[in-house]
Specification:
With about 100 residues, the chain is an all-alpha fold. The chain has one domain (about 15-95). Helix content is about 45%, strand content about 0%. The chain has four helices and no strands. It is globular, with a radius of gyration of 15 Å.
Length: about 100
């Protein structure tokens, strides 16, 4: 039997496997903000990238913002990473009005 999991890099779209109930919960929750926190190498980035992919085809009203804080050492680093994340998502904000 072939193992469906991919290790070493994040995955999305058809390569993402499992977590259907979690995605349903995250996309249907009435919460206005969510934090995904966990230990290293358990699939947080893949989870977030899959949510980003699903929200493009979903009318959930969410604008996913992938804010990579790894390697940030100062508040200036955090600010720059947030700016770049907002810039990457700018077209999604425009689509929402």
């Amino acid at each position: 039997m072939r193992i469906p999991y991919i290790v070493g890099r994040w995955v999305n779209d058809r390569h993402h496997y499992g977590r259907h109930r979690l995605f349903t919960y995250l996309l249907d929750t009435p919460d206005v903000a969510l934090w995904i926190v966990g230990a290293r190498r358990i699939g947080k980035t893949s989870l977030l990238r899959q949510l980003e992919f699903l929200s493009h085809t979903d009318d959930s009203g969410y604008v996913p913002l992938f804010w990579d804080m790894q390697g940030c050492e100062t508040s200036g680093d955090l600010s720059m990473e947030l700016y770049m994340a907002l810039e990457d998502a700018a077209n999604r904000f425009t689509q929402c009005g």
